[in-house]
Structures are given as structure tokens and as C-alpha cells.
Amino acid sequence: MSDGLKTLQLRLVSGCQQSSFEGPRSSSFPLPGEAEFPGFPAMPSALLQLELCLSAPVVDLQDITDIIRADIGLTVQLLRLAAPEMARSPGNLIGISELVVQVGVAKLFALATDTKPLSEHLRVPARLNVCERFWTHSRLTAMIAEELASQFPEVTGEQAYLAGLLCHIGNLPETLGWATAGLGPWHSRHIGYRMAKAWEFPCILRDVIGGYGGVCRTRECCALVDIAEAADNWAARFEALAGHDATRSQ
């Protein structure tokens, strides 16, 4: 989707929305990879915002896009839900805004209902702060990656955003406290690649998550790996500086 189209207020009237909800959910759920990995959670505030937007008399798809892309959990769930659409273009990495349009309001509503809030998902409540920091770092990395994309003509800002947001999902099993007995003593990058494959992410995104910059099949993939790594480093620096300033002010 072009930048011009992204700025348009894409709206659906509530009558169309309500009639589309009457269809069965079995065509979308369970999502890919459910047997191998648990259902993926999202921040409670993001879920609440999404449900409110989807329940409004007029549904604004741009607002929905902004809510989903700001939360790594909702983004993962959307990618899993959109796996059939993405499979038709396996070599492309489709942006979140276009996926929202392709999936449609009815499936998004079912997705919001099916996704658990992070606080209910955690078996160890004490890990909530760790998870919140991971969510924040992922979003900061994504925003920096989106800015860095202007230096790489091979990719778009939306593609870079996805790469930055998801580049470290291999750390999530430990962060969320999942049982990791079946994952083996693998590096987090390998775990991330396995998760992305089970969730039927596009090949280019799997390679980015796996950190396979040296063996990428396309120039786009190599560029996205470089962007994600640079953005991650910048995000860590900004967070360190913020922590240092907070300590000095106490």
C-alpha cells in the first residue's frame, strides 16, 4: 500500500461490520503453530483499544493498524492470521497496513477476542516488568528501523518496522516463562527462526529473525538484517542513556 493510501481514513460502516461477524470462526482458528507454541499474548491496553475500535459504529482501519503495529503480540497474531494471504506472495514481506485490509474486520474481531492479555498469560506474575521492557524495546527498535530504511532503497519503511519489531522474538519463550524443554539448547536466534517457521511467516522474515545475514537469499533480506541489527543497537543505547539519566536524577 502506498504512503498516500496509508494516510486515507479507511472506514467501514457498522452494518457491514455486524453482518460479517455472523460467519464461523473455524476458518481462522486455531492459528498456525498453535500445537508447537502457546497462544501469543498482547498488552491489555492494546487489546482494549483494539476491541473498542472494532466495536465502534464506524471502524477506522488506520487506527486499527496503529494499535496492532505498536504491540509485538498483536503483530505476531496478525501475521499468523494472515498466513494464507501471505503464502500467495512468498517472496514478499507485506506491511501491517495492507494485511489489516486483506484480513478484514470480522477476522480481526475474532483475533482480538481470542488473544489473551499478557497479565493472564504469565505463569509467573513477577516477570511482568521484564515482559513490558521487552515490548517497549521491540517497539523502539521498530521505530528506529523504520527511520533507517530511508538509507536502503531495497526495502520500505513498513518492512523495516516489522524486521525491527520481531528480530528478537526468539527471546520470548524465556521472557514469557514458557516451558522450553522441547526447544533444546539452541541460541535464541534459532528458536526465533523455528517459531517464525511454525507460525508460517514469510521466508524473508524468517531469515531476518534467524539473523541469517550472511546467507540471505535476496538483497532485501540482507538489508533488513543490517537495519534490524543497527536499530537494536541504537535502541539499547537510548535505553542505557535513559536509565543513566534516571539514576542521576534520583
Low-confidence stretches: 1-27
- Count all strands and give the number: 2
N-to-C CA distance? 47 Å
Helix content class: 55-70%
Average pLDDT works out at: 83
Supply Rg: 18 Å
Globally, the shape reads globular
Largest sheet: 2 strands, antiparallel
Q: How many helices?
A: 15
Total count of domains: 2
Structural class: mainly alpha
Side-by-side strand order of the widest sheet: 1-2
Strand content: under 5%
- Using the coordinates shown, work out and report the CATH topology of the largest domain: Hypothetical protein af1432
CATH superfamily membership of the largest domain: Hypothetical protein af1432
Order of helices and strands: HEHHEHHHHHHHHHHHH
CATH C-level class of the largest domain is Mainly Alpha
Task: Give the second-level CATH assignment, the architecture of the largest domain.
Answer: Orthogonal Bundle
Quick summary:
The chain is mainly alpha-helical and 250 residues long. The N terminus is likely disordered.
What does this structure look like?
By secondary structure, the protein is mainly α. It folds into two domains: 88 residues, no CATH class; 127 residues, Hypothetical protein af1432 (Orthogonal Bundle), CATH 1.10.3210. A two-stranded antiparallel ribbon has the order 1-2. Helix 13 runs antiparallel to helix 14. Helix content is 62%, strand content 2%. The radius of gyration is 18 Å and the shape is globular.
Which key terms come to mind for this protein?
single chain, Hypothetical protein af1432, 15 helices, mainly alpha, 250 residues, two-stranded antiparallel sheet
